[in-house]
Design goal:
eleven-stranded mixed beta sheet; single chain; 13% helix; 4 helices
Length: 240
């Protein structure tokens, strides 16, 4: 089923139409920033041709969204499960509070990607970014995995304050050096072969989606960033 986004008076009307359809596969044509596409859906495949607006895939609960273009801010906000594949760039706060599922982004992302990302029991969120990430990557991250591949500029993989307030999860950077302004509350090390095995399948999937050579990507230096304490800012709130 194909819907022309330009024929709907508002993003709400478009989203109501998507949710009302019984079809499992829906294509949205001529998307120009309509918000909340696929929000909360469980069992549909939604293909967006154009620019997906703020909040696309928010609270996604098992559906798959393919975006053939760029995406705006707060994509995958509080996402529970499912998959989002973005063939362009993405704005700020992608994966805010993300609780599960996987987001693959071919291009770059803005500020605060993965902020407050968390994991619980079988729920494990993953974000793979092909380009670079802006400042505050993984801010207050409590769980899950963020991978930044730096395919277009290996010298500027992440902005300032990477891992600020981080107290769980892991950030992986394919880079020649660590980013400036790295938080003093995190540990950073060069990944070894055993480390790489933990997340190479996500990178393989990225390569399959976007047409990159897996071996060429893996033949490079990777850094792992993890918190150095479960409560890195405990001293700000307690006396002991």
């Amino acid at each position: 089923m194909t819907l022309d986004a330009l024929k709907f008076a508002s993003y709400k009307d478009l989203n109501d139409a998507v949710k009302a359809l019984n079809e499992k596969e829906i294509t949205i044509q001529n998307a120009y920033g309509q918000r909340y596409l696929g929000c909360g859906l469980k069992d549909k495949l939604i293909t967006v041709n154009g620019t997906a607006g703020n909040g696309t895939g928010a609270y996604l609960d098992g559906a798959k969204i393919i975006i053939n273009g760029n995406a705006q801010d707060a994509i995958a906000d509080t996402m529970n499960s499912g998959e989002i594949v973005i063939y362009g760039d993405c704005g700020d706060t992608v994966g805010y509070g993300m609780r599960g599922g996987v987001v693959y982004i071919r291009g770059n992302v803005g500020y605060r990607a993965g902020i407050h990302m968390k994991a619980y029991k079988e729920n494990f969120p993953v974000m793979v970014i092909g380009g670079r990430a802006g400042s505050f990557l993984g801010e207050y991250q409590a769980g899950g995995l963020i991978i930044v591949l730096g395919l277009y500029d290996e010298e500027k993989v992440a902005g300032y304050y990477c891992g600020s307030g981080m107290h769980g999860g892991k950030i992986v950077l394919r880079a020649n050096k660590l980013p400036s302004g790295l938080s003093s509350k995190v540990n950073a090390k060069i990944a070894n072969n055993d480390d790489l095995k933990e997340y190479e399948n996500y990178i393989k999937n990225f390569c399959e989606y976007f047409g990159f050579n897996f071996d060429e990507i893996m033949n490079h230096n990777f850094y792992e960033i993890t918190p150095n304490s479960k409560t890195p800012y405990k001293q700000l709130y307690t006396y002991n």
